[in-house]
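Quick one: co-fold with NAP.
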Amino acid sequence: MKVGILGSGDVAKALGKGFIKYGHDVMLGTRNKSGLSGWLSENKPALAGSPADTAKFSELLVLAVKGLAAADALRASGPGNFSGKIVIDVTNPIADAAPENGVLKYFTTLDDSLMERLQREFPEARFVKAFSCVGNAFMVDPKFKDGRPSMFICGNDEAAKKVVAGILDRFGWETADMGKAEAARAIEPLCMLWCIPGLLRNEWGHAFKLLH
Ligand SMILES: NC(=O)c1ccc[n+]([C@@H]2O[C@H](COP(=O)([O-])OP(=O)(O)OC[C@H]3O[C@@H](n4cnc5c(N)ncnc54)[C@H](OP(=O)(O)O)[C@@H]3O)[C@@H](O)[C@H]2O)c1
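Sure, here it is.
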């Protein structure tokens, strides 16, 4: 598949590398291509382009930008360029305010989520929340002594979630499908929980697992 990834940060780079490893064509979308020159030379044949070029290139789009900039980044990509496409939403609605005792501040409430806002503004896109509740170092081929970790996903389009579950399986995850877009209200705050041991004790080496 042609995978376009909006973003140039650690998540975009980690997922970009993973999609290349598993045989996909990858383009990273950024406002500043020169910042990616080192990464591109180490990750051939990855491409970089503007956000709009990247959305046009993609058969599947990954949204991996700062949460506060998520809607702007999609607007800059041109909604017509990703209409009808699956958009894997990795973002978290982290506010600019400092964490409190290791607990991140969010700009959403428990009755709303960033992914629902994006799905409302871009109704033709098929959003699936995924990869949002783990650090980028574990997104591809996570290795834990307790086995495969669980990735919580949600979204309104069942076929889109099946495609994303297939990618997660390939990347070494068990998929825990939590239902429609509203479930992002519960999934996005898992990032707050995941970050607490890191922010309090510099412990970042964990992931979630749903036991049955
Ligand atoms: N870091 C992790 O391990 C991790 C794990 C799970 C989820 N997440 C979530 O994944 C997302 C990406 O995280 P990250 O750590 O890789 O990067 P980040 O530092 O949160 O974001 C960097 C990206 O945001 C874009 N950006 C910033 N301001 C923008 C604006 N005004 N308009 C358009 N784009 C803007 C930048 O685009 P340009 O390239 O154009 O400058 C850059 O690509 C975040 O939402 C984060 O919460 C992160």
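If it helps, Residues 7-12, 30-32, 64-67, 69, 72-73, 90-92, 94, 132, 135-136, 191 surround NAP (CB under 6 Å).
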